[in-house]
Design a protein that fits this description.
alpha+beta, Aminopeptidase, globular, binds coenzyme A, acyltransferase activity, transferring groups other than amino-acyl groups
Length: about 230
Protein backbone atom coordinates (compact mmCIF):
# COMPACT_ATOMS: atom_id res chain seq x y z
CA UNK A 1 0.00 0.00 0.00
CA UNK A 2 1.65 3.28 -1.06
CA UNK A 3 1.96 5.82 1.76
CA UNK A 4 1.30 9.51 1.14
CA UNK A 5 4.14 10.92 3.23
CA UNK A 6 2.80 14.47 3.06
CA UNK A 7 -0.46 13.36 4.69
CA UNK A 8 1.45 11.10 7.07
CA UNK A 9 3.29 14.14 8.37
CA UNK A 10 -0.10 15.50 9.46
CA UNK A 11 -1.44 12.22 10.84
CA UNK A 12 1.66 11.29 12.82
CA UNK A 13 1.71 12.95 16.25
CA UNK A 14 4.81 14.78 17.35
CA UNK A 15 7.05 12.68 19.63
CA UNK A 16 8.67 14.01 22.78
CA UNK A 17 12.37 13.26 23.23
CA UNK A 18 12.66 10.13 25.42
CA UNK A 19 15.70 8.74 27.19
CA UNK A 20 16.24 5.00 26.62
CA UNK A 21 15.47 2.47 29.36
CA UNK A 22 18.67 0.68 30.40
CA UNK A 23 18.05 -3.08 30.40
CA UNK A 24 18.21 -5.05 33.64
CA UNK A 25 17.99 -8.63 34.77
CA UNK A 26 15.71 -9.94 37.53
CA UNK A 27 16.11 -13.33 39.16
CA UNK A 28 12.58 -14.70 39.53
CA UNK A 29 11.30 -16.76 42.46
CA UNK A 30 11.92 -19.97 40.46
CA UNK A 31 15.59 -19.02 39.92
CA UNK A 32 15.17 -18.18 36.20
CA UNK A 33 16.56 -14.89 34.98
CA UNK A 34 14.20 -12.43 33.28
CA UNK A 35 15.72 -9.75 31.04
CA UNK A 36 13.73 -6.51 31.12
CA UNK A 37 14.41 -4.37 28.09
CA UNK A 38 12.81 -1.69 25.96
CA UNK A 39 11.06 -2.92 22.82
CA UNK A 40 11.88 -1.44 19.45
CA UNK A 41 9.11 -0.47 17.07
CA UNK A 42 10.15 -3.34 14.76
CA UNK A 43 9.50 -5.78 17.64
CA UNK A 44 5.76 -5.06 17.62
CA UNK A 45 4.62 -7.82 15.20
CA UNK A 46 6.48 -10.45 17.28
CA UNK A 47 4.99 -9.06 20.51
CA UNK A 48 1.47 -9.14 19.06
CA UNK A 49 1.96 -12.83 18.37
CA UNK A 50 2.10 -13.50 22.11
CA UNK A 51 -0.76 -11.12 22.91
CA UNK A 52 -3.18 -12.74 20.43
CA UNK A 53 -3.94 -15.96 22.41
CA UNK A 54 -4.89 -13.80 25.43
CA UNK A 55 -7.70 -12.06 23.53
CA UNK A 56 -10.11 -14.92 24.23
CA UNK A 57 -9.23 -15.49 27.91
CA UNK A 58 -11.99 -13.98 30.06
CA UNK A 59 -10.33 -15.04 33.28
CA UNK A 60 -8.80 -12.20 35.32
CA UNK A 61 -9.69 -9.68 32.55
CA UNK A 62 -6.99 -10.93 30.20
CA UNK A 63 -9.34 -10.37 27.22
CA UNK A 64 -9.96 -6.65 27.69
CA UNK A 65 -6.41 -5.86 28.78
CA UNK A 66 -4.84 -7.74 25.88
CA UNK A 67 -7.28 -6.23 23.34
CA UNK A 68 -6.43 -2.73 24.49
CA UNK A 69 -2.71 -3.48 24.62
CA UNK A 70 -2.92 -4.92 21.11
CA UNK A 71 -4.44 -1.69 19.79
CA UNK A 72 -1.96 0.51 21.64
CA UNK A 73 1.02 -1.41 20.31
CA UNK A 74 -0.39 -1.28 16.80
CA UNK A 75 -0.90 2.48 17.20
CA UNK A 76 2.78 2.78 18.11
CA UNK A 77 3.83 0.57 15.20
CA UNK A 78 1.69 2.61 12.77
CA UNK A 79 2.71 6.03 14.18
CA UNK A 80 -0.69 6.89 15.60
CA UNK A 81 0.12 7.59 19.25
CA UNK A 82 2.25 10.17 20.98
CA UNK A 83 5.37 9.22 22.93
CA UNK A 84 4.57 5.60 23.77
CA UNK A 85 7.11 3.11 25.08
CA UNK A 86 6.97 -0.61 25.74
CA UNK A 87 9.13 -2.78 28.00
CA UNK A 88 9.42 -6.55 27.66
CA UNK A 89 10.22 -9.37 30.07
CA UNK A 90 12.00 -12.32 28.45
CA UNK A 91 13.19 -15.61 29.90
CA UNK A 92 15.48 -17.63 27.61
CA UNK A 93 14.33 -15.31 24.83
CA UNK A 94 10.65 -16.18 25.43
CA UNK A 95 8.29 -13.28 26.01
CA UNK A 96 6.73 -13.62 29.48
CA UNK A 97 5.32 -10.14 30.06
CA UNK A 98 4.70 -6.75 28.51
CA UNK A 99 4.12 -3.24 29.84
CA UNK A 100 3.39 -0.06 27.91
CA UNK A 101 2.85 3.58 28.72
CA UNK A 102 3.27 7.03 27.26
CA UNK A 103 4.37 10.54 28.10
CA UNK A 104 1.60 13.16 28.13
CA UNK A 105 4.18 15.93 28.50
CA UNK A 106 7.61 16.27 30.15
CA UNK A 107 6.12 15.97 33.64
CA UNK A 108 3.17 13.57 33.40
CA UNK A 109 3.14 9.90 32.39
CA UNK A 110 0.02 7.95 31.36
CA UNK A 111 0.29 4.30 32.29
CA UNK A 112 -1.40 1.99 29.79
CA UNK A 113 -1.19 -1.76 30.44
CA UNK A 114 0.59 -4.65 32.13
CA UNK A 115 0.22 -8.22 30.86
CA UNK A 116 1.86 -11.20 32.52
CA UNK A 117 1.97 -14.14 30.10
CA UNK A 118 3.53 -16.48 32.66
CA UNK A 119 2.06 -16.42 36.15
CA UNK A 120 2.75 -17.02 39.80
CA UNK A 121 6.21 -15.36 39.68
CA UNK A 122 5.25 -11.68 40.09
CA UNK A 123 6.38 -11.04 36.52
CA UNK A 124 3.63 -8.42 36.11
CA UNK A 125 4.59 -6.77 39.38
CA UNK A 126 8.27 -6.57 38.35
CA UNK A 127 7.42 -5.17 34.92
CA UNK A 128 5.02 -2.56 36.29
CA UNK A 129 7.79 -1.49 38.70
CA UNK A 130 10.19 -1.22 35.74
CA UNK A 131 7.64 0.95 33.93
CA UNK A 132 7.42 3.30 36.93
CA UNK A 133 11.23 3.27 37.17
CA UNK A 134 11.40 4.42 33.55
CA UNK A 135 8.84 7.22 34.03
CA UNK A 136 10.43 8.59 37.19
CA UNK A 137 14.14 7.83 36.96
CA UNK A 138 14.98 7.84 33.25
CA UNK A 139 12.28 10.04 31.71
CA UNK A 140 12.52 12.28 34.79
CA UNK A 141 8.76 12.71 35.20
CA UNK A 142 6.95 14.05 38.26
CA UNK A 143 3.96 11.71 38.27
CA UNK A 144 2.25 8.81 36.50
CA UNK A 145 -1.53 8.43 36.12
CA UNK A 146 -2.80 4.89 36.52
CA UNK A 147 -6.09 2.98 36.47
CA UNK A 148 -6.79 -0.69 37.16
CA UNK A 149 -9.03 -2.84 35.00
CA UNK A 150 -8.85 -5.95 37.16
CA UNK A 151 -9.01 -6.76 40.88
CA UNK A 152 -5.49 -8.25 40.69
CA UNK A 153 -4.23 -5.05 39.09
CA UNK A 154 -5.92 -2.96 41.80
CA UNK A 155 -4.26 -5.07 44.48
CA UNK A 156 -0.85 -4.95 42.81
CA UNK A 157 -0.73 -1.19 42.08
CA UNK A 158 -3.23 0.80 44.14
CA UNK A 159 -2.79 -1.17 47.36
CA UNK A 160 0.79 -2.48 47.23
CA UNK A 161 2.46 0.87 46.43
CA UNK A 162 0.02 2.43 47.65
CA UNK A 163 -1.09 4.95 45.02
CA UNK A 164 -2.88 8.23 45.65
CA UNK A 165 -6.49 8.67 44.49
CA UNK A 166 -7.26 11.69 42.28
CA UNK A 167 -10.20 13.12 40.34
CA UNK A 168 -8.16 13.28 37.15
CA UNK A 169 -9.74 11.38 34.24
CA UNK A 170 -7.56 8.66 32.71
CA UNK A 171 -7.08 8.32 28.99
CA UNK A 172 -8.43 4.74 29.06
CA UNK A 173 -11.83 6.15 29.99
CA UNK A 174 -12.49 4.10 33.11
CA UNK A 175 -12.50 5.26 36.72
CA UNK A 176 -10.56 8.34 37.72
CA UNK A 177 -6.78 8.04 37.86
CA UNK A 178 -4.65 7.03 40.76
CA UNK A 179 -1.30 8.75 40.90
CA UNK A 180 2.27 7.61 41.48
CA UNK A 181 4.31 10.61 42.57
CA UNK A 182 8.11 10.73 42.86
CA UNK A 183 7.70 10.51 46.63
CA UNK A 184 5.50 7.41 46.43
CA UNK A 185 7.92 5.84 43.94
CA UNK A 186 11.00 6.33 46.09
CA UNK A 187 9.19 5.11 49.21
CA UNK A 188 8.12 1.91 47.39
CA UNK A 189 11.39 1.38 45.52
CA UNK A 190 13.25 -0.69 48.15
CA UNK A 191 10.28 -3.12 48.34
CA UNK A 192 9.17 -3.31 44.74
CA UNK A 193 11.79 -2.20 42.22
CA UNK A 194 14.41 -4.91 41.72
CA UNK A 195 16.99 -6.02 39.15
CA UNK A 196 20.68 -5.78 38.31
CA UNK A 197 22.61 -3.84 35.71
CA UNK A 198 24.37 -4.34 33.46
CA UNK A 199 22.75 -7.41 31.94
CA UNK A 200 25.42 -10.03 31.13
CA UNK A 201 26.15 -9.57 27.40
CA UNK A 202 25.20 -13.15 26.40
CA UNK A 203 21.84 -12.84 28.14
CA UNK A 204 21.05 -9.49 26.52
CA UNK A 205 22.17 -10.75 23.11
CA UNK A 206 19.84 -13.75 23.46
CA UNK A 207 16.88 -11.51 24.35
CA UNK A 208 17.56 -9.09 21.52
CA UNK A 209 18.23 -11.78 18.90
CA UNK A 210 14.66 -13.07 18.84
CA UNK A 211 11.41 -12.63 20.72
CA UNK A 212 10.40 -16.25 21.12
CA UNK A 213 6.81 -17.13 21.83
CA UNK A 214 5.21 -20.20 23.32
CA UNK A 215 2.40 -21.84 21.32
CA UNK A 216 -1.17 -20.66 21.94
CA UNK A 217 -2.17 -23.64 24.11
CA UNK A 218 0.89 -23.22 26.34
CA UNK A 219 0.15 -19.52 26.82
CA UNK A 220 -3.50 -20.26 27.67
CA UNK A 221 -2.48 -22.99 30.11
CA UNK A 222 0.07 -20.73 31.81
CA UNK A 223 -2.52 -18.02 32.31
CA UNK A 224 -5.51 -20.14 33.27
CA UNK A 225 -3.78 -23.26 34.55
CA UNK A 226 -3.21 -24.42 38.06
CA UNK A 227 -1.53 -22.15 40.57
CA UNK A 228 1.90 -23.33 41.68
CA UNK A 229 2.50 -25.21 38.45
C1 LIG B 1 -2.24 -8.06 36.90
C2 LIG B 1 -1.05 -8.88 36.47
C3 LIG B 1 -0.18 -8.08 35.51
C4 LIG B 1 -0.22 -9.23 37.71
O1 LIG B 1 0.85 -10.04 37.32
P1 LIG B 1 1.80 -10.76 38.41
O2 LIG B 1 2.27 -9.77 39.38
O3 LIG B 1 2.79 -11.53 37.64
O4 LIG B 1 0.80 -11.71 39.21
P2 LIG B 1 0.10 -13.08 38.74
O5 LIG B 1 -0.93 -12.78 37.70
O6 LIG B 1 1.09 -14.14 38.41
O7 LIG B 1 -0.60 -13.50 40.07
C5 LIG B 1 -1.65 -12.78 40.68
C6 LIG B 1 -2.28 -13.67 41.71
O8 LIG B 1 -2.90 -14.78 41.08
C7 LIG B 1 -2.30 -16.00 41.51
N1 LIG B 1 -2.05 -16.85 40.34
C8 LIG B 1 -0.91 -17.05 39.72
N2 LIG B 1 -1.03 -17.88 38.70
C9 LIG B 1 -2.27 -18.19 38.66
C10 LIG B 1 -3.00 -19.01 37.80
N3 LIG B 1 -2.45 -19.66 36.77
N4 LIG B 1 -4.30 -19.09 38.04
C11 LIG B 1 -4.85 -18.45 39.09
N5 LIG B 1 -4.20 -17.66 39.92
C12 LIG B 1 -2.93 -17.54 39.71
C13 LIG B 1 -0.99 -15.63 42.14
O9 LIG B 1 -0.63 -16.55 43.13
C14 LIG B 1 -1.23 -14.24 42.66
O10 LIG B 1 -1.73 -14.25 43.95
P3 LIG B 1 -1.13 -13.23 45.03
O11 LIG B 1 -1.62 -11.88 44.60
O12 LIG B 1 -1.69 -13.70 46.30
O13 LIG B 1 0.36 -13.33 44.91
C15 LIG B 1 -1.49 -10.21 35.77
O14 LIG B 1 -2.37 -10.91 36.64
C16 LIG B 1 -2.19 -9.97 34.45
O15 LIG B 1 -1.55 -9.84 33.42
N6 LIG B 1 -3.54 -9.92 34.52
C17 LIG B 1 -4.36 -9.68 33.32
C18 LIG B 1 -4.22 -8.25 32.84
C19 LIG B 1 -4.39 -7.25 33.93
O16 LIG B 1 -5.28 -7.30 34.75
N7 LIG B 1 -3.48 -6.26 33.91
C20 LIG B 1 -3.46 -5.17 34.85
C21 LIG B 1 -4.49 -4.19 34.46
S1 LIG B 1 -4.70 -3.00 35.74
Amino acid sequence: MPIDMELEAVLRPEQLPMAPYPPKVITLANGRRMVVRQAKREDVPAILHSVRPCLSIERDYYDIVSARLYGELLAWYRYRVKSEFCLLGQVDGYLVGIVNSRMVDEKVGMSYHTLAIDRGLRIGSHLFAAKMEHHIEYLGQEEVLIVAESPIGFRRWMIEYPLEKTNIPHELGGGDSYRLTRQIYYAAKPRLVVGDRPVPPDLLAEAEAEIKFADDDTIRERISGLKGR
